[in-house]
Specification:
By secondary structure, this protein is α/β, with parallel strands linked by helices. The protein has 4 domains: about 1-50 and about 85-270, TIM Barrel; about 280-345, Alpha-Beta Complex (Type Iii Antifreeze Protein Isoform Hplc 12); about 345-490 and about 665, Rossmann fold, CATH 3.40.50; about 495-650, Glycogen Phosphorylase B (Rossmann fold). About 35% of the residues lie in helices and about 15% in strands. Strand 6, helix 6 (about 135-145) and strand 7 (about 150) form a beta-alpha-beta unit. The protein is elongated. The two termini are about 55 Å apart.
């Protein structure tokens, strides 16, 4: 809803100052009150447009007597309205004055002549009073003008509210607001029932606000805090002036305070946010953490006698208190030292394997975790499957600590009691996991296959998984919730060097699943159509032997077929090639990490987004399957300079940007350690 081009709602309450009878039949007093509303900060001022003869008749019969226990008892309706009405002839002057000083003005009509008068002055909205909500002809006539309709519900039953709304909508007007109102003057607090305001919004699907007749401003501020789109309050220049509505009207000081308090409440409400301000972050320095409270010598055990949780917060989080008791200090720690992980002998064992092509993603995530945890002062160690000399040499070259281990030897993990174990392999058996759990380890599984039967006591952090995880509740398994997923992938160029040759001599074709059978022959055809075909190596996923055409081409010498490569062997082949051609599946990011120029072929619609993203980042070229006959031409256009540019973008791209956040998840708030 908009009134005078100002949008109502959106976290800001529209404040209307109701002049009503508080002009005491003085147009100058009416103008002064309008000016007061403007200066106090109201958004609009509202009049009431009627005469005693348009709202009732002059009759002393009992039914025209006011006897309902109101502040106006003892008179008739006609005589009350004689003291309260705003003359029709004032309206043009008051509308012009309000517009001159810059405050919106509109009115409540009480009959068709009032609507006609207001329409002639281009009123921006119509307000229907509580006692007129059952005047369906009036509502229909006003709604047909196409202006916003604001209906008070002070004496209306739900059926009457629905009937009034239907009248507006039949007239073609859906720009409607309902005001919660209690037609009691002044209204006792216990009769306000303010929660009804939002029920009006939910039940009838319209904007909602409050017409407030209570004493003071507390209810009005509460309404704004509850989301009132509009607030209406009677106002008076000075209550000492008297008048029919003076007792429940706000004077200038009160209206000014009301506007100020509502705007302050709106600012305080803000949005749902758990972020700390810079001042709050600075204040966190005074919260608790772990400190050395008595001198500790290197080799001495940490205990409750020498480590405590105290202020300030420069040490380890207090959640680690029970975990560090019994640990050994690796250096002298004077009293007053904020405790750090690198003060202790704490190892994190990372289990991984590289025995399959897709293992490239596993070992890269583990490498990222290794570096991130080492940066936090822990002592990560790879547990490497079997006797993979290539993997061992690569890890050693990078400076990673590792020990070879067979999956059947996981009982050795019993030596690691109390440590964190990160498991990254789909091959870990249920027996092995039971052995880990039996060793009382705190286990975090980093795995993008989600095939584990987690043992009792396992700690699972979905936001560290490489793909959407199954967070279905399982007995004895504790899940940490994560807002997003972190995929840890450091560039393999940190392990191997990469050079760009002037010519494309060796092309590596990497295909998996159904892409292997469908795309590989077409890729081979496209590559051999050039004048100087490169040497072609083909790496297929599991089941490559079932593709007889590819086997036949390999036997004829058209390509060299590779099966069952380890992850490190796969990385070595990528780095030794001048170009990689692959489908745009899940391994795309692992491929380009090796800095080898890459062409991604889209065979299926579900690959389009992934390939498009890679191409937009300059990390790969994109081809559709039907463009494969032009593959040799594409190679001719890939000059060494273009390939160097692509390789440099690959090297600069932050594949491992999630590693530090991952370590924070492990060790920070809500972390797995402890």
């Amino acid at each position: 809803m908009k009134i005078d081009a100002k949008t109502l709602g959106e976290g800001r309450c529209y404040i209307v100052a109701e002049l009503s009878a508080n002009h005491n039949h003085s147009i100058e007093l009416a103008k002064q009150t309008i000016l007061m509303a403007k200066e106090a900060g109201a958004d609009a001022v509202k009049l009431q447009t009627y005469t005693p003869d348009t709202i009732t008749i002059d009759c002393d019969a009992p039914c025209f007597q006011i006897t309902q226990g109101t502040i106006w008892d003892g008179t008739t309706l006609y005589r009350l309205y004689q003291t309260a009405y705003t003359p029709f002839e004032w309206h043009r002057e008051l509308f012009a004055y309000a517009r001159q000083i810059g405050i919106t003005i509109f009115s409540t009509p009480f009959d068709r002549t009032a609507v006609d008068l207001l329409e002639s002055m281009d009123t921006p909205a119509y307000k229907i009073a509580s006692f007129e909500i059952n005047d369906i002809p009036l509502i229909t006539y006003a709604a047909a003008k196409g202006k916003p309709m604001i209906l008070s519900t002070g004496v209306a039953a739900p059926a009457e509210i629905s009937e009034a709304l239907d009248a507006c909508r039949r007239a073609g007007n859906n720009d409607i607001m309902l005001l919660k109102c209690t037609s009691s003057y002044p209204t006792p607090y216990e009769q306000v029932n303010l929660h009804t305001m939002n029920d009006l919004r939910r039940r009838y699907g319209v904007a909602a606000g409050l017409s407030d007749h209570t004493l003071g401003t507390a209810v009005s501020v509460a309404a704004a805090a509850l989301g009132a789109d509009l607030l209406e309050r009677h106002v008076i220049l000075d209550r000492a002036l008297g008048g029919p509505d003076a007792s429940f009207s706000l004077d200038q000081a009160e209206l000014t305070a009301l506007v100020r308090d509502i705007r302050a409440a709106e600012a305080a409400l803000g949005s749902v946010c758990y972020d700390l301000t810079e001042k709050q972050k600075n204040s966190k320095e005074h919260s608790r953490s772990l400190f050395v409270t008595r001198d500790i010598a290197a080799g001495e055990t940490l205990s409750a006698d020498n480590v405590r949780s105290i202020r300030p917060a420069f040490g380890m989080h207090t959640r680690y208190y029970n975990d560090i008791l019994g640990k050994t200090a690796v250096m002298d720690l004077p009293r007053g030292t904020p405790l750090r992980f690198n003060h202790l002998k704490v190892r994190v064992y990372i289990l991984t394997e590289g025995g399959r092509v897709n293992g490239l993603g596993h070992i890269t995530r583990c490498a990222a975790l290794y570096e991130a945890l080492a940066a936090r002062g822990l002592q990560p160690v790879f547990w490497l499957e079997g006797d993979d000399d290539i993997a061992a040499q690569a890890l050693a070259r990078q400076g990673y600590a590792y020990v070879p281990v067979r999956w059947t030897a996981l009982e050795r993990l019993a030596e690691l009691q109390g440590q964190l174990c990160i498991v990254d392999s789909y091959k870990v058996s249920g027996e092995a996991l039971d052995a880990i759990a039996g060793a009382a380890l705190r286990c975090l599984y980093v795995d993008d296959h989600n095939r584990h039967d987690y043992p009792p006591g396992a700690v699972v952090h979905p936001s560290l998984l490489g793909a959407a995880s199954d967070t279905e509740d399982r007995p004895g398994v504790r899940y940490y919730s994560g807002e997003d997923y972190v995929i840890l992938r450091p560039p393999f160029c940190r392990i191997f060097d990469k050079s760009i040759r002037e010519e494309i001599r060796k092309v590596l074709v990497v295909m998996g699943g159904t892409d292997a059978a469908q795309l590989t022959p077409r890729v081979l055809n496209g590559l051999k159509s050039g004048q100087k075909p490169p040497q072609i190596h083909v790496v297929l996923g599991p089941g490559a032997a079932s593709y007889p055409e590819i086997q036949k081409r390999a036997q004829s010498g058209e390509c060299i077929l590779h099966e069952n490569l380890s992850a490190i062997e796969m990385a070595g082949m990528i780095l030794d090639s001048d170009l990689v051609v692959s489908a745009g599946g899940q391994t795309s990011y692992e491929l380009v990490q090796c800095r080898t120029p890459t062409i991604l072929v889209q065979a299926a619609e579900n690959q389009r987004r992934n390939i498009q993203e890679m191409a937009e980042k300059g990390l790969a070229l994109a081809l559709k399957a039907e463009e494969l006959p032009l593959l040799s031409q594409t190679l001719d256009g890939l000059t060494a300079e273009k390939r160097r540019t692509m390789s440099s973008k690959m090297a600069a791209y932050d594949f491992s940007g999630g590693a530090a956040r991952a370590a924070g998840i492990l060790l920070g708030d809500g972390g797995a350690i402890g």
